[in-house]
Structures are given as C-alpha cells and as structure tokens.
Design a protein that fits this description.
alpha+beta; seven-stranded mixed sheet; five-stranded mixed sheet; 41% helix; binds phenylalanine; binds zinc ion
Length: 894
C-alpha cells in the first residue's frame, strides 16, 4: 500500500491476455484464520492475442504450492512478484493447481473473503477475487466455475455459491461440504460464496416460458419477518424484465443474502446476490417508506444485472457504465412503472415524482462531482484505483445517457436495440461502443456524435433565448450549448442534446406546436435535438406570446440557463403541465430566494422573504387536487449540496442561516395551512407500503418540519404526539426528525426514547446516528454537532469497522451537514483528517468515500480554504496511505 507509485491505468492501453481460463475448480477449506483455497485452472492460449506468458494476479495471499500440468514448474518458467505471477508455457493448453492460504478473520477491507457476524462472505467486484487465489482477475476472462465449500457445520450450516447445488454431505469432525456448479461462464468478479448460520424465505415461481425457479432470501435467524418485501420486489422485477425486455431468469435458483458488513449497496454475483442488509430487511416498525422504496429498486437493480452485466459483461473496468448506467436506467424505469401501476389514475404524477427523486440525486451528487477535481466522463480515460470510479457519474449520469438514447430512439427503437445487443453479445465481455453500435444498427441511425457523451466530462450548460414576433405570431427559440473545461479536458465538442419543449399560453394551457414549414400543429410537447453549438427553431401560428417550458421531464443531464423573472417562475409553478418542470420551477424560485438570503447573511444584511414567493409557495401548498407525494416534493426546498455548488463562493454557514430562516418563515407565515393540511389529509390506516399512503405520510412529515422549524406550539405538540403514538417507522422517524431539526427542547428526550426502543436494532440505530450527525442547530450557544458526533463515536452501538455505521455517523456529518461541518476554525476538518486516516488503516474503500467530502474545497470562502489545505496535506502525508485515499487527496490538491 504505497501512494507515490500507484500506477495510472489508461483506457487505451487495453490488450487481450495471451492466456485465458476455460474452467476453474475451487475448493475452500474454511477456517477463521487459515482458509486453504485449492484452485485448479484449465487455461488456454487466446488465439486473438499476441503470444506471451500466462499472467495471474494476487494480493495478500500466502502461496502454499503451484504445479503446472501436475508437476513442479521447470526452473525459470515462473516469475513471482508481490501481486503478479508470470508463467512461460509451451503449447496451447495447460492445467495449473495453486494452493493458497488466506485469513478471512483479519480481512477488514471487506474485499475478498471476510467474516461478518460469525459467517464467511465474499466480495469480488472489482478486484477482490485476487485476494482469494491467483487468477487473471479481469472481466474479459470468463470461466466456468465449480466450487466446493467445506466448513464447520455448527458455525456455518449453510454453504452457498453460484449456480446449482450438485452435491452435499457430512464429513468427520463436525464438518460438512457442498458443491456448486455454475453453468454459465463468468468473470471472476461475479464469483461469490456464503458460509453462515442463516435461514431462508423461499418461493417457487414460473418463468414466462414455464420453468420453475426457486427464489430464496437468506437472512440471520430472527430476521425472517423482514424479508417479505424483498421477495415481493424480486418477483416483480422478474415479471417486469420478462414483459419489458423479454428477458427471463436463466438459472434454476436465485438467491439473495443479507450481510451486515458491506462496503456498497449490493452485489450481483451470478445467482447469489449479496446485499447490504439495509437493502433487504424491512418491516413497518423498523423501515420507512423510503427504505421500502430503496429495497425495491436495489433488489431490481441487482436482478437486472443478470442480463445487463452478467450475461453480457464489461471487457475492462473503463466500460463500467456499460453495465451500471444501463442497469440504473432499467431500475429507474421499473420503479416508475411500479409506482404508476399502484397509483392508477394518478400514474403520471407518480412517474414524475420518481423522476424528481432521480434528478435530485443527480444534482446533489453528480453535478458537484462533474465540477470538481474528480470530474470524469461516464467512461473514464484513466484511473489509479478502480474502486474510486464507482461514482455518481458512472452510475447516475450513465443512466441519463441511456435515457437520452431511449428518448431519441423511442421505446420500440430502444427495445430493438437491446434485442440486437443481446443477439450479438450474449456470453461476451464487451465495450460501450458495442452497445451504442447495436442501438445504431437496430435503428438505422448514426450515433457517432452521440458517443461524445461517453468521452466528455462536465455538465453541459444549455442557454435558451426566446424571441416573440407579435406581427406574424411566431416564437423563435435559440438554444446554445457550452460545456466548461474539466481537469485534463479543456476542449469540448457539441453534444447531441434532446430538449423536450412545450409552449404555455397566457391561460396556462399548453399550445399545440407547429414548426415553420410544417402543415399543421401537432403535439404539445416535442423533442428538439440540439446537436450543434447553437440552433434555432421557429414556432408559428401562435396568437399570443407563449411561456416556454424547456427540458421537460429533465430530458438531458444539463444545466438549463433560462432567464425567467419571478413572475414567470410563479406562473410555471402554477401552470406547467409537465409535473417535473412544475417542480423545477418551484426549485428555481426557492434557489433564487435562498441564494439571495445566503448573500445577505454573509454580508450581515437583514433577511426577508419576498411576498410573491410565499404566495406562489402557498398556492402549491393549498392545491389539494395535487397528488400529496408531488406536493411533498414541490414544497421541499432544494438540497444544501446543490445550492452550495451554485453559491459563489460557497459559504455553508451563511447558507445554513438562510435555510433556517426561510424554513421558519414558511412555517410561521403559513402555519394555519400546514396545520389544516395535517388535519385534512386522510390518514392512512394500518401501515402498508403503498405510494398513495407514502405520499400522504411524506406530506404530513414535511408539514411537521415547517411547523417545528417555526416552533408553532400546535405543530410541535403534534410532532411529539405523533412520535409517541406512531404505528410505523415513517411516522415515528418523521416526527423525530422534525423535533431534532427544529432544535426543540423535546428533541433530546425523544432521541433518548428512540434509542431505548431500538438499541438492539443496528439498522434502526443507523437512522439515529444519521439524524444527529445531520442535525441543524438554531442557537449558536447549543452544543456543536461536531462535539456530538465525536461523542457518538464512543456509543456502544457505534463501530468504525461497520460501513453502515460510518456512513450514518461520519458520512452524514461530512457530506449531509455542510452548515455544521465547515467550521471557520477548521476543527471539523481536523476531525475529518483523523477519521479518514483511522479508517484507511482498516478499510481503504470506505476511507476514500469519506475523503471525497472535501474534494470541492476550492469553491469555499478563503477562510475555509485556508483551514482545509493543511488537513488535506496531512492526510496525503499519512504513513502507509492507501492508493484509494491517495488518489482522492492528490486530485483534490492538484
Ligand atoms: N456492482 C454493484 C452494483 O451496482 C456495486 C458494487 C461494486 C458492489 C463494487 C460491491 C463492490 O450493483
Ligand atoms: Zn449495479
């Protein structure tokens, strides 16, 4: 683990390996500190590659033996390095047998084979398999796996691996074994094993073609009552992929396993998905509506990978978005369809709410990334540590790029492209070009220029100008694109940007659109393709000046620069027929007000909220024809991370003052409306996870937030009562959060009661940690959140070695609470550096994620910048720093 020499890997350096592996036969003698792995490899020369030695990767392995064709290697035939073995082989085929010894107990990285709560689990993406045995550990090597697990029956009564169970039985000394065979060749990153004391919820289903499949959700004993929703989600995902893409489950059994210690969300290992427990376990008393929603989408995401990722995989890790962008797009579409189906007549609104959620994530996480030192195209050109490239850009912007293809080609064209992609590449490891070429060929459409989305970093700006000609009733729209330079990429070429456009008439109704040269008016929304630096469109046949509604449904991942005065934003807030844009108009208006308040706070001027804004806001609040879920979105102020990105220079303390002030004002001035709303909404009866109920709960919780922010007595009383009498976690936690963020005197007692009730429930405690770390503070005299976070590190429920705990406490503080983290005296940054260094010694991937919290430091006020730099430098100089954290801090300091 040395930073200075972490080599940079270049995308264009790709070359196929001289040798590949056809079959691998693995035997695991499981033992806490000395697991012995015997690997038999059937290797073959790759006819498509230049001749060369057979290459194997390894990391942290103790090699006990290596034989070639059953014999000890000839002198000089094997060159061994720390992480590489090279073997000269004659002929075109060879069998290797390698025995290694590994220590799962000591593996704190959670990559490779590790232990969690007494069990054994693996995580191999991206490069964890090399921590298990020597192997050409890259995704273009696809082998057929057979796996024998042998372990102590009392410790691990359940032995699982990929594919089908072919044999099991008892052995002497209380041990037992199981043998698994995966019929599909796969890259090593999709290998998995689980050996633990678990129980399963089981279900048998028929696939579309009538094959019976066994579905299992494996959890710790005692959690069986929290698996139903994950199972339901899995069945829905199966059906959806059959109906939408004609894709069926290809195995006889499909397993999901929940594990408490996991770096990421979940992993799509073939037939044996391993999940962070938080994306499996749910029951009304412990999980919120949002948790239920996330479980549904993550279960679907991993299931969808079976085709987009596993059957067709990535040639190299630069192609990561090939599987991730496409699979995120698929899970987003799935969730939107599920929500729309449940919402019935309100289906369109439900879809818009899902789109709003997705765009919030993109703007909060991906836009800042694309504007900072880590900016990279969805297909990066280079990396030092691949684990650092599981990013919002590869995932979320990658999904937006796929969505644009879907928009440009239409649902049928997209489906035809998918069909062609599978017909060409099933069973292969391919590139993003292969995917886009299939789309292109299936639709007879040139997508060469579109490929620039894969190569260019940075969020494009699209500037819009409108010209109204009253004399001939025409409206000319000029769109101009510009992408700011990003590190290492100063020149940007024009992209293909689909811009969905509508024109709104003075009465608020959409106008039929007729472009110059067209015979008759048509639809009220249409997609314009901006494929040059600047283009113009002339709409004709209009009787009055229209109000443009641009980028409807967020048709491209860009920043729209459109000059609109307050009155126009208020008009679109009230009238835009595109629900996404209606929400966006509210966000833009709120952003304008908040940034102005922030500037006033920074300069010590008096604060005040424009009356017109309150009126526009109140109209949405009072409009009970609107779906509650949509109203909850439209009345929630823009996120802090997004706003800081738009603040020049970023001043988190001033922005926080502005947020607290605006929240309290909207609560105070509109108190009667908020209270009426909580009384007027029909309270859902017994808890069920359903979008209509969830929307009502979200809106009530939002009302409590405003009422508590304003300390309206009737509202704080209501929050307290709801906290005490809640029948489900959504209500209970919503009320608690309102009390805490309102910094009310009742908050401490409520936090203590919550802790008492859930002290033995790790997942619920994560919420408790996250809430306190993300808390807003109203009075300068109150205990700083930093002090509280420091104290919570010592709570018996906390552990630095559990990623969920780290994300809940430290992640929430560093990333979700800028107003409290960025302290002018630098004490927050010193604490950050201490924690990053401590984490890095045990788990570099988690440490690197925390390290990223400060990468955009150059955008902050001079005082903060001066306080950040020495801490970044301290981390960079830390003894034994991992390449993971090294890459992040080096880029931040560049
Ligand atoms: N491939 C996983 C997913 O997106 C994410 C993951 C990456 C999990 C690396 C673990 C390690 O579904
Ligand atoms: Zn994924």
């Amino acid at each position: 683990m040395k930073t200075e020499h972490a080599p940079t890997i270049q995308r264009t350096d790709y070359a196929p390996l001289a040798w590949t592996v056809r079959r691998i036969d693995l035997h695991f003698a499981l033992d806490p500190q000395a697991t012995v792995v015997t690997s038999r490899l059937a290797c073959a020369r790759n006819p498509e590659a230049a001749p060369g030695p057979l290459l194997l990767d390894g990391e942290a392995l103790e090699t006990l033996s290596l034989t070639i064709g059953g014999l000890d290697p000839a002198p000089g035939a094997v060159r061994r390095g720390e992480t590489r073995i090279e073997i000269d082989v004659e002929g075109d085929e060879v069998e290797l047998e390698i025995v290694t010894r590994i220590n799962p107990q000591a593996n704190t990285t959670l990559s490779g084979l590790y232990r969690s709560r007494g069990g054994y689990f693996t995580q191999c993406e991206a490069e964890g398999f090399r921590r298990i045995t020597w192997f050409p550990d890259r995704p273009d090597v696809m082998a057929r796996f057979s796996v024998t697990l042998e372990g102590d029956k009392a410790v691990c009564p359940v032995l699982l691996s990929n594919g089908n169970l072919v044999e099991e039985g008892d052995l002497p000394d209380g041990r037992h074994y199981a043998r698994w065979e995966d019929p599909f060749p796969k890259p090593s990153y999709l290998f998995a094993l689980v050996a633990a004391d678990l129980v399963a919820l089981e279900r048998r289903e028929l696939t579309a073609s009538g094959r019976e499949v066994l579905l299992q959700v494996w959890v710790e004993r005692g959690n069986l009552d929290r698996c139903e929703h994950a199972m339901e989600s899995l069945v829905h995902a199966m059906r959806w992929d059959e109906e939408t893409f004609g894709l069926e489950l290809d195995l006889d059994r499909f397993m999901i396993v929940a594990v408490s210690d996991f770096n990421m969300g979940a992993m799509e290992n073939k037939g044996l998905n391993i999940f962070n427990a938080k994306y499996v376990l749910a029951k009304p008393d412990t999980a919120t509506d949002v948790d239920y929603e996330h479980i549904e989408s993550v279960v679907a995401h991993e299931y969808f990978h079976n085709w987009t990722g596993n059957r067709v995989t990535c040639r190299d890790w630069f192609q990561l978005t090939l599987k991730e962008g496409l699979t995120v797009f698929r899970d987003q579409q799935f969730s939107a369809d599920m929500l729309a189906r449940a919402a019935g007549a309100e289906g369109d609104s439900a879809r818009a709410v899902k789109r709003i959620d997705d765009v919030r994530v993109l703007r909060a996480a991906q836009f800042p990334e694309d504007a900072g030192p880590m900016a990279h195209p969805i297909r990066p050109e280079r990396y030092q540590e691949i684990n650092n490239f599981y990013t919002a850009t590869v995932y979320e912007k990658g999904a937006e790029v796929i969505r644009m293809l879907h928009t440009l080609l239409g649902p049928e064209g997209f489906r035809n492209g998918m069909d062609l992609y599978f017909s060409y590449h099933d069973g292969q490891a391919v590139t993003c070009d292969d995917f886009v070429e299939a789309m292109s060929e299936a639709n007879g459409r040139d997508l060469d220029q579109f490929m620039r989305w894969y190569a260019q970093a940075g969020t494009p700006r699209v500037a819009a100008r409108g010209g109204w000609d009253a004399a001939d009733g025409s409206y000319t729209l000029t769109l101009t694109q510009h992408t700011p330079p990003t590190p290492g990429q100063t020149e940007k070429l024009p992209l293909v940007i689909p811009v969905a456009v509508g024109l709104i008439g003075p009465d608020g109704a959409d106008l039929p659109l007729q472009l110059e040269g067209e015979a008759a008016p048509g639809a009220t929304t249409r997609v314009l393709e901006l494929n040059a630096e600047s283009r113009q469109w002339r709409f004709v046949g209009l009787s009055a000046e229209p109000v443009p509604s641009l980028l409807r449904g967020f048709s491209a991942p860009v920043i729209l620069e459109l000059e609109e005065d307050d009155a126009r934003l208020a008009f679109r807030m009230a009238n835009d027929s595109d629900a996404f844009n209606r929400w966006d108009a509210a966000q833009r208006y709120a952003e304008r007000v908040l940034l102005e308040l922030g500037a006033a706070a920074a300069e010590g001027r008096a604060l005040g909220v424009p009356v017109a804004f309150v009126e526009a806001f109140a109209r949405l609040l009072r409009d009970d024809r609107l779906d509650p879920a949509f109203r909850a979105q439209a009345l929630a102020l823009p996120g802090e991370g997004y706003l800081l990105e738009r603040m020049q220079p970023a001043d988190p303390a001033a922005l926080r003052t502005a947020q607290i002030y605006l929240g309290a004002e909207l609560g105070r001035v509109l108190a009667a409306d908020w209270l009426a709303l909580t009384e007027g909404l029909v309270e859902p009866g017994e808890y069920r996870y359903h979008p209509a109920d969830a929307g009502r709960r979200a809106l009530i919780n939002l009302a409590l937030r405003y009422l508590c922010a304003a300390r309206v007595p009737a509202g704080t009383g209501l929050a307290r009562r709801r906290f005490e009498s809640a029948s489900n976690m959504t209500d209970r936690f919503g009320a608690l959060a309102a009390l805490v963020h309102g910094a009310l005197p009742e908050a401490e007692g409520a936090l203590a009661a919550f802790y008492e009730r859930y002290r033995d429930d790790a997942l619920v405690l994560d919420k408790w940690f996250a809430l306190q770390a993300g808390a807003w503070r109203r009075d300068a005299g109150a205990t700083p959140v930093l002090e509280r976070v420091r104290a919570l590190l010592g709570d018996p429920g906390f552990s630095l070695s559990n990623p969920n705990k780290v994300y809940a406490l430290l992640g929430s503080f560093f990333r979700a609470n800028p107003g409290e983290f960025h302290l002018a005296d630098g004490s927050g940054y010193a604490f950050w550096a201490d924690q990053v260094i401590a984490l890095d010694a045990a788990n570099p991937q988690v440490a690197a994620r925390m390290a990223r919290a400060l990468e955009n430091w150059r955008r902050f006020t001079p005082v903060l910048r001066e306080a950040v730099r020495p801490q970044l430098e301290r981390v960079r100089a830390a003894e034994g720093l991992s390449p993971d954290v090294g890459e992040i801090v080096a880029k931040a300091l560049e």
